Every structure is written in C-alpha cells, then in structure tokens.
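Changelog note: in this version the structure field was regenerated for every chain. One regenerated record is shown below for reference.
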Amino acid sequence: MSTPPKSGFCSYLRAGRAPAKTQRSRTTPVLILLVLVLTAVYLGRFGIENLNDALTFMGRVTGAGLIVVSITALLGGAAVMDYWFRGSFPHSGIVALAGTVAAALTNLMVLLEVANGDSRYYLAASILLTAGSVWAVFAVGRMSVEIPAPKRLAVAVLASTAFAIANFGYQNLYQPYQHGARPVIKLAVGKHELSMDGKSFAVPVDITLENNSDVGFYVMGAEFHAMGQKVPVSKHDRLRQQWRDDATRWSNTQERSPLSRREVHQIGELVAAQPWMIPGGWIEASDSFAIRTVVQLPMDTPYDQVAFYASASLARKDRLDLETVQFARDSWSGGKVPQWVKKQDFDSLIYSGRVHENNSINERTMDPRFVSVYWGFGTQGAFVSSSVTRKGEEDRILPKARIREMNNRYGLVDPATGPIQRSLWDIKSRR
C-alpha cells in the first residue's frame, strides 16, 4: 500500500501532479506578482537615484540595497508564477517567500521615511505597497512552502542577521550622524599702523576658519564687525546695584556683558562691519580659510578700546546640497521681508538659495526647501543667521524644538568668536 504524498510543493512534484487550480488560486498569484513588480519599480527608482546622487557613502550603500531588494522582488514574482502554474524549479516556493518578505520589510522602512515628508502621493503609494506586500507574505505562506533548513537554524540565522544589521547601523549610521562637527573661527589682531598725515590709524585683523572635522561645510554667510567702547575707570569700588544695572542694560545687545568693580563699561557702538566669506561657497574637510581685514579709526577717536567679533552660518555638505546663494533683498527698500526682521532695531541683508535633500527619498517626498540667510547690522552690533523653510514660510517663527530639529537635519552650525579686545590708550596718547 502506497503512502499518500506529503503536503507542499515538493511533495506534489514527487507525486507527479501540481496543485489544483481554482479560479481563486489563479487570481492570487497574479495579484502577488503585481504587488512585487510595483514594489520593484518603486524601490528601484529610489535605489538608482540614491546610488548615483546620495551625498554620503552610506546613502549610496542604501541605494545599492534598494536595488538588490528590487531585483529580489522581481525574482520572487517569477518564483510565485512558477510555483503556482509550472513547477519547473524545485525551490521556487522558498524564493517566492524570500521575495515577498524582503519587499514587505523594505516597503515598511521606506514608509517610515516617507511619513516624515510632505507628499501625500508617495505616502499613499507606500501605504498601499506595504499593505499589499504584507498580504503577499501571508498568501505565499498559505501555499505550504517547505523551508529546507530546520526551524531552529532559520531562527538563529535570522536573529544573528538582525543583530548584525542593528550593530552595523548603530556604528556606521547613527553614531557618525550624531557626531557633531563645528569649525573654529580664530581672530589675530596685528600692530596698528599710522596714516601718512598722522590723523588716523589702521588695525589689521586676521580671520581664520579652521575645519578640522571629516565633513565639508557650505558657507551661508559670514560677518566681521568691530565695536568701539568707552571705558572710564572709577576711583572706588562700584556698588552691587550698579553691577545689576549694567547687566540689565547689556542684556538686549549683541555684545558680551563685561561686569567690573572699577571699570565703567558703556555699550559699544558699531565702527566697522563686513562679510569675509562669499555666501554659497564652501570649505572642505580638514581645510582652512584665512583673510585679513583692516579697521580704520581717527586718532581723536572717543573710544578707549575696540572689540572685534567674527561669526559664520554654515551647513554640512553631507546633509544638504545647496545651489548658489544670492542676494535677494534688504529690509529698508520696501521689499518683502519677514515681520520678525522688521521689528528688530537692525538693518538686514537677506540672501536666499535652493536646498536639495541628501537622499532621493526625501528629495522626492518633501516640498522644495530654501535657505534664507539674514545678515543684520545696526549701532549695537552685527549678526548672521540662517533658516531652511518652504517657500512662503519665511515669516513663520518656529518653536525652539523645531529649530533644533531643522539644525540637526541640515547640519546648520554657527561658529563665532569674540570679543578680541584692543586698548587704544597707547594710540590716543600720541595725539
């Protein structure tokens, strides 16, 4: 008496017959094939663009991974049709299962990334493909696919693989992305030089930007300014209330509050301001940039000392791609500027440039972003700052949490140095 064949595709092959074909069984493989083909096209498009255009090595590795999953999904679709209708390949069942599982997991990861974007079209597509590929996994699982390896071995391999992927992602993706990089600005004040007629003098200042990190930076804006200060000296120790008054008076200025028992610092006045790097330029990793500027003052200057400041607004080249930053408008010619700029006691020059994301998924699923660079200057000092927003949202004041998120996403940093102070008493004594 012959033993009835076991269930499963391989047993059917041994028995010399294929599974029964009902109308439902013919529809199911076609739907699974459709899901896997659409997944392959969807993921393959992201993968090819990432492989060619991603700004980081790991971004290109991700692109290669998406291409591999895309090919796996196509092979899985072919295996489904073979398993269901022809039975010419003995392991088509396990290939079909692997293709659907890979498609489901990758679609889920892409969905989590797309959910942070702005496109409803891509969000809907990711939801449908994720749901469809999860259904495909269960549909293939109901086909009594025989797994060649023992279950315990399969579980061990899956667990070790998951651990290896998590460990690799933490060491090579999460930690480098969280690693901060901040270039340093240095100021060096040289010896003053008198003019030919002896009525004025010039102070040379060397400005150096040192990037000792392993990533490059775009230059959004860079400003240098000098503040003249009067510092009379009291013959007696000043009262605590006078210190408090000084702190209150300086709280709304761009300068550092100098509290002293004998020196009576007065709020400084802007005597010079200028950009020192071209907006839209960049500095590469492990590189430096140096420039010399000169501040000129009359010999009969009323100031006792001058303080020098320099700052910049930078963005990491591995987190955004920046088109040319160009001058857009100023705050005093009637052009459209944000309300928060109009309310300040500063004149402002505004630059703007198009920003591209560092990977194809975000580039396609997020609305176009633009960087706005504000260089403000007035009698109380100067500053430079930048923000990345959608077009038309420049007037929106973001909460602090959103600002931190934006700065981290695009790698925005604002290095600054100063005050570097120089006494003018030796120069004034020559009058």
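Spot check on this record: The first strand starts at residue 184 and ends at 189. The chain is about 40% helix and 25% strand.
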